[in-house]
Amino acid sequence: MKNIEDEAVKRFLDSCYGKSESEIKKLYQENEQFRADYEIVYASYLEFEKELLRLIAPLIETVAQIASDIVKNEKVINFLKAQQGSIPASICGMGVRS
User: Fold this and answer.
1) The pTM is what?
2) How far apart are CA 78 and CA 82, in angstroms?
3) Which residues contact 13 (CB under 8 A, 6 or more apart)?
C-alpha cells in the first residue's frame, strides 16, 4: 500500500508542478487519475496531521499545566504586580499581538 501511496504522491506533485491554481482545479475536474491521486494525498495528509496532533498533545497539556501553575502561584503573581511597567506586556501574555 505504501508503494501505491508513494506513486500517487509523485504523480500528483508532478501534475501540479509549475501550474497555476486554476490549471490545477481544471485538472481535478477533468482528470480521473488526478482526482484519485489527490484523494490519496489528502488521506495521507490527514493521517500525518492526526499523528502530529497525537505527538504534540502531551506538550500542549504540559504547557497548559505550567501556565495554570504560574497563575496559581502567589509568589509569581506578587512578583508580576511589583514589576508592573518594567516587564514587557508581551511576556505576561497581555501584549498586543501583531
Assistant:
1) 0.57
2) 6
3) none
Amino acid at 61: E
Using an 8 Å Cβ cutoff, are 40 and 13 in contact?
A: no
Euclidean distance between CA atoms 29 and 33, whole angstroms: 11
Please check whether residue 93 is in contact with residue 64, taking contact to mean a CB–CB distance below 8 angstroms. Answer: no
Q: How far apart are CA 17 and CA 62, in angstroms?
A: 41
pLDDT at 51 over 80: yes
How far apart are the C-alpha atoms of 69 and 55, rounded to whole Å? Answer: 23
| Residue in the block written with cell 475536474 | 29
Q: Is 87 left (phi over 0), alpha (psi -120 to 50) or beta?
A: beta
**69 or 88: which carries more pLDDT confidence?**
69
